[in-house]
Fold this protein.
Amino acid sequence: MRAADPAALGAWYRECLGLDADENGLWRTEAGVTVFATFESGTEYFGSRAQQTMLDFRVRDLDAMLAQLRAKGADVADETQDIEGVGRFGWVTDPEGNRIELWQPS
């Protein structure tokens, strides 16, 4: 991921989202579903038109994660989305302007 300040952005992901990557970026996740989805080039879903991809993280408790992010001063979207049989979704924007989706599976 490109960043104007890679060290600061990495620290934000560790502190706010608990991403425990090592110095080489190696991050071990719990077993579960991984999603690869493509979108139309004109989509507004990612937020900024300059953003080419969006990370999507599974969370156990979406409401608790959104509250935790708000308490840390993160830019959290007010809306959430529920999709029957899929789960609940919320969004946060990292300090470099990348919109991130948070997913609590059904």
